[in-house]
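queue> pop job 88
queue> type: inverse folding (structure -> sequence)
queue> payload:
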């Protein structure tokens, strides 16, 4: 949701995406593992993860592929290209499970094909439906998973130039994975299809 309005105005050449995904995205087995570890109880086998998730970060979402990436990382690459209708965008990703009960977050580094106006990007995002911009450093305002908890919107902040790159931008994004990432998102997509008379 955040990349689409930006890409329409300023074509993207490359994305470096690091995700910080709630363990709840793995399902009930992961929730039980987390709760057992938190309460210092034995974990029921088979466990969701090879490593503890409580007070830990696991740089593996789904199984590994022959190229060293996980299925989740490659799904992110392919789906992003498809959603943006841009099969030529260069994308690399790292997906990490974190001990957050609800909420996926992403650090995204964008390299544009040409120059961009950062203030215009902030205006674009503020005017995009379903997006809330939290980007006031003086007030320590930036998105966190707790702020996105039980909300339908996608939150974005830490919008800043990448000073190591001529046409680079950094973003931090977070959303409730159980609402926006799943249930609510499915309903919103269905309503959009009905509105456009693509389904009846």
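queue> result:
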């Amino acid at each position: 949701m955040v990349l689409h309005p930006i890409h329409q105005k300023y074509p993207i050449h490359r994305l470096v995406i690091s995700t910080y995904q709630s363990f709840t995205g793995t399902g009930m087995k992961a929730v039980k593992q987390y709760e057992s570890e938190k309460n210092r109880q034995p974990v029921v086998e088979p466990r969701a993860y090879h490593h503890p998730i409580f007070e830990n970060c696991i740089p593996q979402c789904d199984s590994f592929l022959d190229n060293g990436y996980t299925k989740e990382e490659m799904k992110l690459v392919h789906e992003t290209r498809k959603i943006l209708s841009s099969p030529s965008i260069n994308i690399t990703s790292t997906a990490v499970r974190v001990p957050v009960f609800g909420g996926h977050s992403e650090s995204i580094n964008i390299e544009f094909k040409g120059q961009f106006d950062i203030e215009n990007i902030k205006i674009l995002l503020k005017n995009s439906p379903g997006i809330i911009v939290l980007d006031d450093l003086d007030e320590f305002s930036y998105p966190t998973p707790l702020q996105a908890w039980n909300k339908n919107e996608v939150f974005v902040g830490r919008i800043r130039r990448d000073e190591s790159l001529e046409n680079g931008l950094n973003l931090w994004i977070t959303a409730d994975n159980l609402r926006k990432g799943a249930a609510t998102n499915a309903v919103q997509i269905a309503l959009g299809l009905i509105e456009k008379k693509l389904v009846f």
